[in-house]
Automatic annotation (TrEMBL), chain A:
It holds the Pfam family ABC_tran. One of its GO terms (molecular function) is ATP binding. The keyword NADP does not apply. It comes from Mesorhizobium montanum. It comes from the Bacteria. The lineage of its organism: Bacteria, Pseudomonadati, Pseudomonadota, Alphaproteobacteria, Hyphomicrobiales. NCBIfam families: thiQ. This is Thiamine ABC transporter ATP-binding protein. InterPro entries: AAA+_ATPase (IPR003593), ABC_SmlMolc_Importer (IPR050093), ABC_transporter-like_ATP-bd (IPR003439), ABC_transporter-like_CS (IPR017871), P-loop_NTPase (IPR027417), Thiamine_ABC_ThiQ (IPR005968). Belongs to the ABC transporter superfamily. Keywords: ATP-binding, Cell inner membrane, Cell membrane, Membrane, Nucleotide-binding, Translocase, Transport.
From TrEMBL, chain B:
Keywords: Cell inner membrane, Cell membrane, Membrane, Repeat, Transmembrane, Transmembrane helix, Transport. It is found in: Cell inner membrane; Cell membrane. Residues 53-255, 343-533 form the ABC transmembrane type-1 domain. It comes from the Bacteria. This is Thiamine transport system permease protein ThiP. InterPro entries: MetI-like (IPR000515), MetI-like_sf (IPR035906), ThiP_ABC_transpt (IPR005947). The chain crosses the membrane at residues 12-32, 57-78, 90-113, 133-151, 192-218, 238-259, 288-314, 334-358, 379-398, 404-425, 466-489, 509-532. It is a multi-pass membrane protein. The complex is composed of two ATP-binding proteins (ThiQ), two transmembrane proteins (ThiP) and a solute-binding protein (ThiB). The gene is thiP. Belongs to the binding-protein-dependent transport system permease family. CDD domains: TM_PBP2 (cd06261).
């Protein structure tokens, strides 16, 4: 147990377990078996359609497994709605309600009816200050840059203080320098809170920057999982090296190629 | 997404139930009455019935021809000249008939071409005798063309707007003249749109009530809807009313089925098309012809509006405004239209939300459930069952158990609300679905649901489209003379009802004043609706 900046008590991370989870979406079918250790940061990589977002949606409760179980901290979450799970998720876009000011967007993390007391407002202001948006409480999302909007979403993550954080390419549309800043912010939050983080990315250097572990998805299953460093040396899985484009096996080479994708 | 209970689906089921009660009650009334008096119903199949049915189809066919053929010319002329002074104004003028209550237009047409109309002298000199006025078939046709020529024109123009600019660029590069350009580029698009548009106009004409009632002028020119009204209000012949109503339902049903096959847009409100950049310019000769076509259409459409304005201003508006009956009718109209619009928008929103929730639940694949189909097309049933039919059914069902004239307000609100639903749904659904696309996962993640969701999320993003739907529904309800013609009485009068009464007692100046009032209010509502809709989109 740690006490967070706003005085609420956050659980440390919970282990995320997918026990023979199967799911189908139209023609595509998926089967996941994995355990993500509590408090670790795992980069989730894989080609388009390999099931990265589906994996996160199953954990968050946006999709229901056809068979199998999702366990968070060893507890089967069953059919619980997303809001009842110990999970926060940040999407690539639409993390904010466009008609609500920053303060309300963050405050919804505390109260879905937006009934905020003085203590809640103070907590909102503190969370915003932590992500570098102090004083922008009254702004509307359209008055913010793309990076700032994702910072608002992270402020809400802080306020909700859930033990599992899922990031579905939230920084994919940001430039490289800004993306590094955001990743450092996530790393900072993780250092404080020690929640379990799964983040989907297409950028190997993102995975290198904050990923402790790596899960590589291919054709609807988790093809490989392990410490991130293992993936980037020559002993990494072949499919992964083909995916990032193996040119001499160095990260510098793959970085060059990966940049072109953005 | 999840097979969890969703309050939106419950709301949709409630809305569907309300529509089912409205339509089912009317049908029950008809069936009970018919079963009660089988021999009377059988006797109603007489020569009169077939004459009425034949005239209903005949006038609709002629109206469709006379509306759609000129509309082709006008639309093409307008599309050939994408930028000239006043073009926008003409297109806006062409949207006015959509807003104008039928009784107002009918009066405007009589003011122009009636026996004592502005043109009576000219026609008398041309015809060499006294001008009899345009009652009967000619009156009905003129009024139907007044309403449907602009509608068809805008729909054709929309179709022409879908021609990719590249095709025009190519045509100009190849040096294509007006005739080959029409044959190779414009005609294929127009021909594809033709069945749908003609079908829509035909549908509107076989269910037209007010026009035929006010301009038909006699048993020789009576349609099924007017005959139903007469059977109930004047002859009091319930058996005949039942047979007429069933025939009308069968007829509209067949037409709707055929229309759906043709892929028609049965709601029929066209957007003002944005003119694309054009690379072909019309020659001098063609320009002159086009100008003539546009000018004629403009005169035809603007004429009754100008006549309404002039004769309305000629009425003693001050005295009218002071009259107790007028004041009461105005208040009644405003109140009923407000309630009808509110109910219409509420039911529409419930159906839209339920449809979306069901679609999301189905996302992982699978066929549409019956319920989802119902929320998708439920409001469309209202088009198959015209207001007069609903009114007639309820009239028959309730006449033995209640005072039919006392329940007039309930009937007007209920039927008008249902009638406006297809339009309200058109205004609201795209915005709702778009907002849901953005907000659905976030609301789930944060646990913002039911009332909180409506208050914090849906209302702010849907305010404008809801207001658009509301204003449009209110305009439709304000101008409607269908249900109130059946249920109206001295104690419950709306403005259109009062207007009809004044026309019937030859108080033409009063009628003209009331028509102006009604026309302006409806027009303002539709302008507001349009403005709100456009702001919301940008």
């Amino acid at each position: 147990m740690t006490t967070t900046i706003n005085g609420t008590v956050a659980e440390k991370g919970l282990a995320v377990t997918l026990d023979d989870v199967s799911f189908s979406y139209g023609e595509a079918s998926f089967r996941f078996n994995a355990e993500f250790a509590a408090g670790r940061v795992t980069a989730v990589m894989g080609p388009s359609g390999s099931g990265k977002s589906t994996l996160l949606n199953l954990i968050a409760g946006f999709e229901t497994p056809r068979t199998g179980k999702v366990l968070l901290g060893g507890v089967d979450v069953g059919n619980a709605p997303p809001s009842a799970r110990p999970v926060s998720m940040v999407f690539q876009e639409n993390n904010l309600f466009a008609h609500l000011p920053v303060e309300a967007n963050v405050g919804l993390g505390r109260s879905p009816s937006l009934k905020l007391g003085d203590a809640d407002r103070a907590a909102v202001a503190e969370a915003l200050a932590r992500v570098g948006l102090a004083g922008k409480e009254k702004r509307l999302p359209r008055e913010l840059s793309g990076g700032e909007r994702q910072r608002v979403a992270l402020a809400r993550v802080l306020l909700r203080a859930r033990p599992v954080l899922l990031l579905d390419e939230p920084f994919a549309s940001l430039g490289p320098a800004l993306r590094d800043d955001m990743l450092d912010l996530v790393a900072g939050i993780h250092a404080e809170r020690k929640m379990t983080v799964l983040f989907v990315t297409h950028q190997p250097e993102d995975a290198r920057r904050i990923g402790q572990d790596m899960a590589f998805l291919d054709e609807g299953t988790i093809a490989a999982i392990g410490p991130a460093d293992d993936f980037f040396d020559r002993s990494g899985p072949d499919a992964f090296r083909r995916y990032i484009g193996d040119r001499g096996g160095t990260v510098a080479g793959s970085q060059h190629i990966a940049r072109k994708r953005t | 997404m999840q097979p969890r209970s969703d309050s939106r689906i419950t709301a949709g089921v409630v809305a569907l139930a309300a529509i089912a009660v409205l339509i089912g009650g009317a049908f029950a009334g008809l069936i009970l009455e018919g079963a009660h008096d089988l021999s009377g119903a059988a006797a109603a199949f007489d020569g009169y019935l077939f004459r009425v049915a034949r005239f209903t189809l005949w006038q609709a066919l002629l109206s469709t021809l006379l509306s759609v053929a000129p509309a082709l010319l006008v639309a093409r002329a307008l599309s050939r000249h994408p930028a000239f002074a006043g073009r926008r104004l003409i297109l806006q003028l062409f949207t006015v008939p959509l807003a104008l209550p039928a009784i107002v237009a009918a009066l405007g047409i009589l003011t122009l071409y009636g026996r004592a109309g502005y043109f009576a002298g000219v026609f008398a000199r041309l015809g060499g005798g006294e001008w009899p006025g345009i009652y009967g078939l000619s009156g009905i046709l003129v009024a139907h063309v007044f309403f449907n020529l602009p509608l068809a024109t805008r729909l054709f123009l929309e179709a022409l707007g879908t021609i990719p600019a590249d095709q025009w660029r190519l045509a100009s590069q190849l040096g294509m003249g007006a005739r080959p350009a029409f044959r190779l580029i414009e005609w294929p698009v127009l021909r594809a749109a033709l069945p749908g548009i003609a079908g829509l106009v035909f549908m509107l004409c076989i269910t037209s009530f007010t026009i035929v009632l006010t301009l038909g002028g006699g048993p020789a020119a009576t349609t099924l809807e007017v005959a139903i009204y007469q059977a109930l209000r004047f002859d009091f012949d319930p058996a005949r009313a039942v047979v007429l109503t069933l025939l009308q339902i069968a007829l509209t049903f067949v037409v709707v089925v055929v229309l759906t096959r043709l892929g028609a847009n049965t709601v029929g409100d066209a957007n003002l098309p944005v003119a694309p950049r054009r690379y072909l310019s019309a020659g001098r000769m063609e320009s002159v012809l086009n100008a003539g076509v546009i000018a004629l259409a403009l005169l035809f459409v603007a004429g009754p509006m100008v006549a309404t304005l002039l004769s309305g201003l000629g009425a003693d508006l001050g005295r009218l405004a002071g009259e107790e009956a007028v004041r009461r009718a105005t208040l009644t109209s405003a109140g009923l239209a407000f309630l009808a619009a509110l109910l219409s928008v509420t039911l529409s929103l419930a159906l839209i939300a339920a449809r979306r929730a069901l679609a999301l639940r189905r996302r992982a694949g699978g066929a549409m459930s019956l319920l989802e189909h119902a929320t998708d097309t439920g409001a469309g049933f209202v088009l198959v069952v015209p207001p007069i039919v609903l009114g007639a059914g309820w009239f028959l069902a309730l006449r033995n158990v209640a005072d039919v004239f006392a329940i007039a307000p309930v009937m007007v609100v209920g039927v008008n609300a249902a009638m406006a639903m297809p339009f309200a749904i058109r205004a609201i659904r795209p915005a709702y679905d778009a907002a849901s696309e953005r907000h659905e996962r976030l609301c789930l993640a944060l646990g913002v649901s039911s009332w909180n969701r409506l208050r914090l999320i849906d209302w702010p993003s849907l305010r404008r489209p809801l207001a658009t739907g509301f204003a449009f529904a209110m305009a439709l309800s304000l101008g409607d003379l269908g249900v109130i013609a059946l249920f109206g009485s001295d104690s419950v009068q709306t403005l259109p009802y009062l207007l009809l009464a004044r026309m019937g007692s030859y108080r033409t100046a009063d009628a003209a004043g009331l028509a102006l009032l009604l026309g302006i209010v409806c027009l303002m509502l539709v302008v507001v609706a349009d403005w709100l809709g456009r702001e919301g989109r940008s």
